[in-house]
Amino acid sequence: MTRSLVIAPQWIGDAVMSEPLLRRLADRGERLTVAALPSVAPVLRAMPQVREVVELPFAHGRLDLAERRRLGAEWRGAFDIAYVLPNSIKAALIPAFARIPRRIGYQGEGRLGLLSERWPNPKQERPPMVAYYASLAGPLGEAPLRPELRVDEAARRAALAAAGLEAGRFHAFAPGAEYGPAKRWPAERYAALAGALHARDGLPVALLGSPQEAESCAQIAAAAPGACLVLAGRTTLDEAIALIGAARGVVSNDSGLMHVAAAFGVPQVAVFGSTSPLHTPPHNPRARVLWLKGELGLDCMPCFERTCRYGHYGCLNGVAVERVQAALDAAERAA
Question: What's the CATH number for 155-334?
Answer without folding.
Answer: 3.40.50.2000
